[in-house]
Amino acid sequence: MKLIQKKRIAFVGAGNVAWHLAQALAAAGHEIKAVYSRSRTSREALASKLPQAQPIATPDFKDLTLDVVFISVPDAALAEVAAALKVAPGTLVVHTSGSQPLTLLQSIEGARTGVFYPLQTFSKSKSLDLAQVPLLVEAWDEDTLQQIEALARSISSQVHTVSSEARKQLHLAAVFACNFTNHLLGISQQILQEANLPEQLLQPLIEETVAKAAQQNPFAVQTGPAIRGDENVLQAHLQLLQQHPGYALLYQQLSRSIQTQAPNGDAKANQG
Amino acid sequence: MKLIQKKRIAFVGAGNVAWHLAQALAAAGHEIKAVYSRSRTSREALASKLPQAQPIATPDFKDLTLDVVFISVPDAALAEVAAALKVAPGTLVVHTSGSQPLTLLQSIEGARTGVFYPLQTFSKSKSLDLAQVPLLVEAWDEDTLQQIEALARSISSQVHTVSSEARKQLHLAAVFACNFTNHLLGISQQILQEANLPEQLLQPLIEETVAKAAQQNPFAVQTGPAIRGDENVLQAHLQLLQQHPGYALLYQQLSRSIQTQAPNGDAKANQG
């Protein structure tokens, strides 16, 4: 157990990110004093997981003695929530968004502001060890940044200072690597289910794909019918997808994108 | 070391799949006697990895004493290669294609035929333990099937009998889960590189995405701006992709596909 400077914390939002962050901070020894969410069910559910937290119905934290307020709400709601937030002067307010700039918190009167973005995918239904999750932090001044970094290091060994601009690019990259990949894995499982094939058959292939991509430029090790220019297989696959026109369209566009990508001489030479 | 019935084997093709299969079979105690490929460089490179193999320039194996011939060539070339192949009567000939039917080998005079499909992605530049790779096998008759299964079990513990029809669906699912996923990981790395961000930042996120998809239906745990209907983020991301119109198009279509997919009440309820 490392020595931490214990902080008194409140959460605005009780969704997937707040769910995991609040519990990890509490487990690290911080005191989560309050959880606000518009949804009564959500705020009560999260507060019930935190021994010292009360669910509250308005985002007014002026009368609570707090060091830090986390705003962890959908990106689209962030500006509105920040405008409604009330905190005591000098309170540190951070948001947890990958795509939203630090400037969005400027409207919060009397607050010091920053960003505390956990680069991971969260679902309430799946537990997760935050110790290896990269936490990307940002602040206006060095002193505030150090406070946020200390808080981040109390729950993760991967703390990086990243500007709002770079964080936007990182979030975009994460959408491709995580959100879109997850969708493709879903399509793949649906195809297996419809063919009455065991879903775990593809697991070694998926794991090898990801392991390989971590070691080499994925474009340089691309395999499959598209990079080979194997029109017969492409046509046969589109035929198999007749009942799923949306997937057939995706198949075509992903294949085209693979083919547009700098032709991979190595993969072609390896055939035959 | 388990007891195996040692086979005398030749390979037609010296690409990624032949490269790994031939070496795994040799390591398991089988004798790889010959490697044919149109490309002299390729056949010599593979034969040089196999102590007992000679590179040969025509696909005529009639005068070699062989038990099994593997045809491991691009799908589009398979029919032509099979038609040109010459083997002694009774030789077992298998192809290693995920998408091509067993019937494609019917033209090979005097041969017993089957399928020996390793469900994995192969690059010559990355070594791989085949012991956990699913091998999908098929044959016309029970006796041939048992021979192929024994051979498969000598290099992998994951041997499954799968019909040509089901194998096609499996291959299609693998294209989504592996080839397309790899392309998305490549795009993601390119975005990070262009923003001067360390590529390994996304690795925990990618691994968690894959681990989660193995435990739960990916559609049920979909996260990200598309499933949240977060138009501001979607538009901002398209803006960031202005220099990559092909990627912007993919971004739009993948987002649309996620949104078309049965709306995920759980993910939406978890927000805010």
Automatic annotation (TrEMBL), chains A, B:
Domain spans labelled DUF2520: 134-258
Originating organism: Pontibacter diazotrophicus
Domain (Putative oxidoreductase/dehydrogenase Rossmann-like) ranges: 8-108
Taxonomic placement: Bacteria, Pseudomonadati, Bacteroidota, Cytophagia, Cytophagales
Highest taxon in the source lineage: Bacteria
Protein name (Swiss-Prot/TrEMBL): DUF2520 domain-containing protein
InterPro entries: 6-PGluconate_DH-like_C_sf, DUF2520, NAD(P)-bd_dom_sf, OxRdtase/DH_put_Rossmann_dom, TM1727-like_C_sf
Residue stretches spanning the membrane: none
